[in-house]
Write a structure and sequence with these properties.
Elements lengths: L3 H17 L3 E9 L10 E3 L4 E3 L5 E6 L3 E7 L6 E6 L4 E5 L9 E2 L7 E2 L6 E5 L1 H6 L5 H5 L5 E4 L2 E4 L13 E5 L2 E2 L18 E8 L3 H4 L6 E7 L7 E11 L17 E13 L2 E13 L6 E14 L4 E16 L19 E17 L5 E15 L5 E16 L4 E16 L5 E18 L3 E15 L3 E2 L2 E2 L5 E18 L2 E12 L3 H5 L2 E3 L2 E3 L8 E16 L2 E15 L2 E8 L2 E8 L3 E16 L2 E16 L4 H4 L15 E11 L2 E10 L18 H7 L4 E11 L3 E8 L18 E9 L1
Parallel strand pairs: 1-7, 13-16, 33-37
Antiparallel strand pairs: 1-4, 2-3, 2-5, 5-6, 8-9, 10-15, 11-12, 13-14, 15-16, 17-18, 17-44, 18-19, 19-20, 20-21, 21-22, 22-23, 23-24, 24-25, 25-26, 26-27, 27-30, 28-29, 30-31, 31-34, 32-33, 34-35, 35-38, 36-37, 38-39, 39-40, 40-41, 41-42, 42-43, 43-44
Length: 753
């Protein structure tokens, strides 16, 4: 029997059958509902297949089915499920998720990733808290973050810093991933932060120097500003705050005069014009302060432009001008009638102009790799009394490369940075001092299956400092030239136990090179002198933590509980120390030796719909044990406590903020607790004749409870809120010989259109 005709016939039937299985093509685009921007890397999945969107936000799927059910997911956005047909023009608009664990954070990786997958502790502040609580400066909002305290404008994470008079921050402050610190002093002017245009604040706790450099030894605060959306937005705000009488009647120096006040006004406009995105915002404030003869007038104007030449190439330009005129003082006159007064000759009158401009280019190559170049020029001009004027120029540039290594399911971030500081100041003997820095870094984040993520990183950094060989009577070592190279490492892992449950483990080395101000400042404030320390060494260290984050979804409640145990060790730790030196009593930055800080942190947050009433909660508790690794008799002799504990720290810190709304009404309450500051420099007691600090501390505890509340009404375009702060009018001392403000009330109006 000849089988060949039968085979030909069967093959013909099979080919006809296969051709009947027509392939259908599904093409669509995924965009953000607010900005209208394409979402790059969104996942579009069916039951059997899945793809990700390209740099245009476009996806293409092939299927033998004419109708499909698609699931679209993207970091930080609410998932979308839709049914589509092949002849349909598919357009998917995604909305940002309000669930905190879905939040997209960039601080730990320099690219967006889910908060739940972070290998380090990161806290997130959303912008509605800033307006609801009438917060005119971001440092007041950061006080609501567990594990973070603000002392005299300096951020302190998990006890990593003590008291520092405006120099040498161990916490790096970023605005859109660019350092906002004044480079020669390592300090932040909080008025540089555009409080009226914040989309999210991310607080990373622990050493992060690998990705961000020297000042990130103790952690990072990254402020992400808002973008223009598909619909133009204009928002105006104004508020007025009035201060009541101090707790001690004798200290009420202004009872027969004008009540101290603060008046703020801000404006914001965001709009798209073709391929151009434009954001313009400004802020102005006048304040007659509770502190005698002190005032603070400040204004800021910012603009940000973003132009898309092509979907692959985008250019941005940001600029801010900030002008401040204020009078302040360091220490009170005495502990009774002079609580809000000042030591003779200690008033500081300062006029400051600050300007910075930030250009950047972002390019996606044909393989989807991201190349980004961003730079900053930052000019500061401070005109001050008592020979404290200074000017500085800061230049920086960074190239950043981001690629997806699909073969090993990993993401690589790498970069090169360079910066230069030129500082000319009367504080440094009225001479020019320069600093230079170059660095290279790389970090890889790899996924092992769907649950385990491992991160490793490395950074090498070179610092060069050049000063005159002789500054007055001080001889600078090595003819004024000092250089140093450090290489540091970090590693971490995150294991996702469930959809909203994850364990994490991290270890990170840190490094901080001294600022120009710490090494060379020379001035006086009343009876105190601030001395230079040209022999000040860089400080190094590491921090490690193990943590567990548990998401909670019960009925209408969506939230999380986060627990972490941490330890930090520093070598040659730098502290701003009061000591007797040649020339008298005074402060200077000193290497105090090796230290260890260990502790526990509990953080919680979430929102619920309780019997139709939306409630939002954020809060937490931190315990620290800050110690010297070698508590010598010489160290003990400088402290007011015989206990081995670092100065200017509080062991226990708890805080919670609760807000509820009913129809148009909004109400909230905020509470903070800090335990006693056990140890300070004992030389403060040498000035007991006028500061009277020893007597005050014998009668009063430095532990404090702080209770604030708010009540408001919100309409479609207008909101009005009344705030009461320090309701119990308690005396709160966060650092020696200076009280926080007494009870005060404020009224705020917000209007948007």
């Amino acid at each position: 029997m000849n089988l060949k005709p039968h085979l030909i016939f069967c093959s013909l039937i099979l080919s006809i059958f296969c051709s009947a299985q027509e392939q259908y093509t599904f093409t669509g685009k995924v965009t953000d509902d607010f900005t209208g921007e394409p979402l790059i890397g969104a996942t579009v999945a069916t039951v059997d297949d899945g793809v990700i969107t390209d740099i245009y936000g476009v996806f293409t799927l092939q299927s033998d089915q004419e109708f499909l059910d698609l699931s679209i997911t993207y970091i930080g956005y609410q998932s979308v499920q839709i049914s589509v047909s092949s002849d349909q023009d598919i357009s998917v608009v995604m909305t940002s998720s309000e669930y905190l664990l879905d939040a997209a954070v960039i601080t730990g990786t320099k690219y967006e990733s889910p908060l739940i997958q972070s290998v380090t502790s990161i806290s997130v502040i959303k912008p509605d808290l800033l307006s609801d609580a009438n917060i005119p400066s971001l440092d007041l909002a950061l006080d609501k973050v567990p594990g973070l305290q603000i002392q005299d404008g300096q951020a302190n994470i998990r006890g990593g810093s003590g008291y520092s008079y405006g120099a040498g921050s161990r916490v790096l402050i970023l605005v859109d991933n660019i350092s906002a610190l004044q480079a020669d002093a390592g300090r932040l002017n909080w008025n540089d932060i555009p409080i009226e245009n914040i989309s999210q604040v991310e607080v990373l706790k622990g050493a992060a120097s690998v990705l961000y450099g020297s000042a990130a030894l103790n952690g990072i605060i990254n402020i992400r500003t808002g973008e223009a959306g598909s619909v133009p937005v204009t928002r105006l705000s104004t508020s007025y705050r009035a201060y009541g009488a101090p707790a001690v009647d004798a200290a009420h120096w202004y009872k027969d005069e004008l009540i101290p006040y603060e008046w703020n006004i801000s404006g914001l406009h965001k709009q798209k014009i073709g391929s151009l995105d434009m954001v313009v915002n400004g802020f102005y404030s006048r304040a007659e302060e509770v502190y005698e003869d002190a005032f603070n007038n400040r204004g800021r104007l910012s603009a940000k432009l973003k132009y898309r030449f092509t979907p692959r190439l985008t250019a941005e330009l940001g600029a801010t001008y900030n002008k401040t005129n204020n009078v302040s003082h360091l220490l009170w006159r005495n502990s009774s009638a002079g609580q809000y007064g000042y030591v003779n000759n200690s008033l500081s009158n300062n006029e400051s102009q600050r300007f910075f401009v930030d250009p950047s280019l972002t390019y996606f190559d044909r393989k989807g790799n991201r190349h980004k170049v961003f730079a900053r020029y930052f000019n500061v001009a401070n005109t001050n009394t008592e020979m404290r004027s200074n000017t500085s120029d800061f230049y920086s540039i960074e190239y950043q490369y981001l690629t997806e290594l699909q073969a090993i399911d990993a993401t690589l971030t790498a970069g090169l940075t360079g910066s230069a500081v030129d500082s000319d100041s009367e504080l440094f003997g009225d001479t020019l001092i320069t600093a230079r820095n170059v660095a290279a870094y790389a970090q890889m984040d790899k996924h092992f299956g769907d649950k385990l993520r491992v991160s490793i990183g490395l950074r090498s950094e070179y610092n060069l400092l050049q000063a005159p060989p002789q500054l007055g009577s001080i001889t600078v070592p090595n003819e004024g030239r000092e250089s140093e190279t450090k290489t540091i490492f970090r590693a971490g892992a995150n294991y996702q136990v469930g959809e909203y449950s994850a364990m994490r483990l991290s270890f990170g080395q840190g490094y901080r090179y001294p600022t120009i101000t710490e090494k060379f400042i020379s001035t006086s404030v009343g009876a105190f002198t601030i001395f230079p320390n040209v022999d000040l060494r860089s400080e190094t260290g590491w921090s490690a933590e193990v943590g567990y984050k548990q998401g909670v979804k019960i009925g209408g409640w969506r939230g999380f509980i986060d627990f972490a145990a941490f330890i930090s060790r520093y070598q040659d730790m730098t502290e701003f120390t009061l000591a007797f030196q040649e020339g008298g009593f005074g402060f200077s930055s000193q290497n105090i030796g090796d230290t260890e800080i260990k502790g526990l942190e509990l953080e919680l947050g979430g929102e619920s719909d309780f019997f139709g009433i939306p409630i939002r909660i954020i809060g937490g508790y931190v315990f620290i044990e800050p110690r010297y690794q070698d508590f010598t008799p010489e160290i003990a002799a400088t402290s007011t406590s015989t206990e081995n504990i670092l100065k200017y720290r509080t062991r226990h810190n708890a805080k919670i903020d609760i807000q509820a709304s009913y129809r148009q009404l909004v109400g909230g309450v905020s509470y903070q607790y800090a335990s006693e500051m056990v140890a300070i420099d004992n030389l403060f007691f040498e000035f007991n004749d006028f500061l009277e600090l020893k007597g005050y501390l014998s009668r009063n505890s430095t532990a404090y409870h702080l209770l604030d509340c708010r009540l408001g009404v919100k309409f479609d375009h207008l909101s009005i809120t009344l705030h009461g702060n320090n309701l119990f009018n308690l005396q709160i001392m966060r650092r020696p010989a200076r009280l926080e403000v007494p009870r005060n009330a404020s009224l705020r109006l917000d209007y948007s259109f």
